[in-house]
Structure formats: structure tokens, C-alpha cells
Amino acid sequence: MKPNFKRLASASLGLLLAMSAQLSLANEDEKAEALFETVFNEGLDRSPVFQTYLGMKTNYDQWDDLSPAFEQEGFALTKQQLARLQAIDSSKLSTDNALSYRLLEEQLKQDIAFEQWRLHNYPVNQMFGTHSMVPSFLINQHRVDSVSDAEAYIGRLNGVPKMMKQLIANLDERAKAGIIAPKFVFPYVISDSENIIKGAPFDKSEDSPLMADFRKKVNALEIDQKEKATLLSNGEKALKQSLKPAYTELVSYLKKLEKKADTRDGAWKFPKGEAFYNASLAKTTTTDLSAEQIHAIGLKEVARIHDEMRAIMKQVKFEGSLQEFFVFMRDDDQFYYPTTDAGKQRYLNEATALIDNMKGRLDELFITKPKADLEVKAVEAFREKSAGKAFYQRPAPNGARPGIYYANLYDMKSMPTYQMEALAYHEGIPGHHMQLAIATELENVPKFRKFGHYTAYSEGWGLYTEYLPKEMGLYADPYSDFGRLAMELWRACRLVVDTGIHNKKWTREQAIDYLVTNTPNAKADSVKAIERYIVMPSQATAYKIGMIKILELREKAKVEMGDKFDIRQYHDLVLTSGPVPLNVLEERVNQWIAQSKS
């Protein structure tokens, strides 16, 4: 038979076109993956602090540049990164890379859009800021494994004056734009700043937190005593001659700025404050919910949780109203450990035991589990007075540092034992440690996604994992179950008070009264919480909005998939792509449901 040259030519052409298309696809994927890595590294190169958080020792003696000029360079870089990204043909990307492309494009566009709000924040406040970052970072992040590491620690101490001058300039720029933290913030930040320069070598009392930390780290080095003495002497000199004058100057400036502060608390007071708050809500919740809608959801959830609490009242045979039950839970000594070293240690031991028990049951709920370990620690004394109730710090990617659940034991009356269980699950396992350690350890996922952050996703997961153990038969003690509800109630109230403060112009006192009336928490808790929401507009709305969406998607999958639904697979779907916006999570769950039916 004679060969059909036309058919062969046609087939060859088809094969070449197919190979060319595959090559183009591969080329676009390769270009995208390279750019994802480049964009992450470009950001990393600009932040010595983030480098240290990741366990790296590059630029180990440096701080981040806080100057407006450096910020503007970063803004210009973001625009360049977006242009480079959009030069890639996203239609030719693999499914995974198409998702990464979409997330990076949205992130860059959002960063550019938010440049107009760059002054709409408080660089120094009672929750966070450069003043408190310096000691907590050096103590918790700056490892000293060698003489050069110790010298880098000293270098960072000597770099504090430059950074504080930049901070003061940034505060001054905001003040000129009419953006000054509310008056209540200043006593906290002034006190915290002054505490950092108390103790040796600043006076003749016990070592200050930084001196104690530096001494401990240097003494642990296997070097001769003369070399240790030289390092310690240089450390003392840097503390006295660099760090102390820098903090003294900051405190002096803050005291002057305090005189210009007022008692207007909401973001509505900012230039274009309403538009800023609406943009912040959209960014925080990754939804298009309005302030009014979020407020209404909060009121509805508060009413539902109150009804569930009344059922527990009946279970424990409490006679009286819900508010009277709140007073009982708030004031009865049986629910609190003493504010003593023994009481605090007992709390830490029992929280650790709860987490260890959950570790042994993870196979019931999860396929993927974190490799990194988790430690439970008390918040350090120098920042415990103003720090939050509890928080989590993710592990170092290189395994040099475990995940840490910090419990604030400054006032044990703010840490009732009936909330201990839910708090341990939220901050530890199966909460933030599962989520953030797994994200850190993901392979074949771009770094910008592994270390990205969507508040509604992360805090929604944390709140969801307070509820999850209930389905496992935990919270056997009805008071602990009340504690779980109390913490969910707290997050539902946040929807009401955050929108109340920043959209409805509620006063600080009005918002505090709402929490005191509607929750069992101590008034001190309510004061600290409202002050937090004031300085972090919209952030508090993320928890309940995120939890509602994660539960809603889970229930949808259970109904539509029937016997094919596996909660372990659902959790894997939520956790093994890194943080994503809620709308993207919903799309992924819908795809999973559709695939189960095909």
C-alpha cells in the first residue's frame, strides 16, 4: 500500500501543533512559577525582620526600613510585579498555577488600592507596634548560636535609634493628616515603652528583660569567659547608649502627642473614614457583606447563643436569669486559679494536657498533620499587661522553632478555667497550629501562598475548631461547654461592636457596656477587647464570618455528597492549599462536590 503523504503530513502537523501547545503551556507554567518565587523573594529581601521570622540569618543585625521613601519604593515594586504577572497568559496555566496567579493578582491589586489608606493606622498602640516589637522580637526570634549571632543582636540594639526616629516621623506625618490614636492608647504605650528601659543595666535593680535575655543566650555559648565578658559588656553598652536614648525620645514624643489626642474612637473620624472602613471590611472578611449586614448577623448570632446558654443553665440547675448566670460564672472563685506562680503553672500544665489529648485523636478528623511541635507558654512579663488574651506564633520553616501558643496570665481573673479548653483548641490543636504549621510545611505551593494571610480564613478556622471538639464528644463538663459558647458569643458580639464603633459611631463606653451586658466575661476583658477593636478596624469581624462560611460549606458538602462525604477529606481541602479568601474556598468546595458526582 502506498503511503498517504497528505494524511501523514496532516498528522505530523497536528502532532507538532499539539507539542507546541504543550510547550507553550509548560513555558507559561514555568514563567509563572518563577515569578511567584521572585515576587516572594523580592518582598523577603526588603524585610530583615521577616527573614529572621523564617529562621534565616541574613541581614541578622538589621531592622526593617520604616521610612516613607522605602514604603514608596515598595509601592512602585508592587506595580511592577503586577505588570510582570499580567504579561503571563493565565489561560495557559495549570489548575494549581491558575489559582496562584489569581490569588497573587488579587493581592497585588488590593495592595495598590490600599495605598491611598497608608496613613489610616496607628503604628504604635496597645496591641502591637515597633515599641513592643523590638523586645519581643529579640527575645523570641533572634537566636544566638554563635559569637556572630550575639554580635548581630548587639547590632540590632544599636540600630534601634534610627528605627525609632523613623517611627516618630511616621507618627508625625499621621498627626498632620489628623490621624492620632485615641487618648486611652497613650498610657499603655508609654508605660510599655518605659518598662523596656527599667532594670539593669539602666538602673541597679534586676536585669531588664532584654539584658536577661542577652545574658542567658551569651552564657549558653560554648566560648571562653573572656569572650563572653566582652559580648556582655558590648551588649550593656548598646542597651545604655543606643536603646535607652531611643526609647526616652519616643516616650517624650508620645507624651506630647497625647495632648493632641481625643476620645473619638471610630474609623469614621479618619479622612474618608467611611470608605476606608468599608474597604477594610471587604479585605478582612473577603466578602461583599456591608457593615449593616454584618451588624445584623451579629445580633442574630448573639440571640441564638444566648438560647443555647439557657439550656446549659437548666442542665446545671441554676436558678435565675441569664444575666445572673453570667455574674455567677464571672465571679465564682471555683472558675479561677490564683494569680500566683503556682496558679499560672497549673493553667499552663492543664492547657498542655488538653492539647496533648487532642494530638492523640487527630486521625479521627485529619489526613494531613503538622510535623512541627507545639509549645504552651505564658506571655512575657514586659508585655503581658497590654497584650491580648491569647495568641499563636507559627513555627520556623526550617524547624528551628516550634509553634507557640501564648496564654496571657497577667490577670488570672481574665482566664476562667471554663474557657481553657476552647482557647487551647483555638490557638493550638486543632486550631491555628494545624492550620499555620501545615501551611508552612506545604510542598509544591508558592511561598507567597504558604505565608499569605486572609484573616477570615485563619480566624474562621480557629473559631470553627473550638466547635469541632464538641462533635467529638469533648467538653464533657457542661461548664466547659458553656465556656465554648461564651467564646463563640464573644466573637458574635464582635460583629455588633466593631460595626457599632466604626460605622454607627458608638462610643468606647457604649461598646464596653454592650459586652458587659451580653457576655459572662469580666469587665476588664470587655475594656481590653473594645480598645483592641478600636485600634484594629474590621479585624474582629473575621472570626464569626469565617466560621459561618466554613460550617456552611461543610454542611452543603454533607447534604450533596451523602455517603461520599468524609470530614477528613473536607479538612484536607480546607488546609492543604494554604490560606485562601472565603470566595475561593467556596469555589474549591463546590468543585469537590461536583467531582464526587461525576
From TrEMBL:
Protein known as: DUF885 domain-containing protein
Taxonomic source organism: Simiduia curdlanivorans
Keyword Nucleus: no
Region forming the signal peptide: 1-26
Keywords: Signal
Keyword Signal belongs to the record: yes
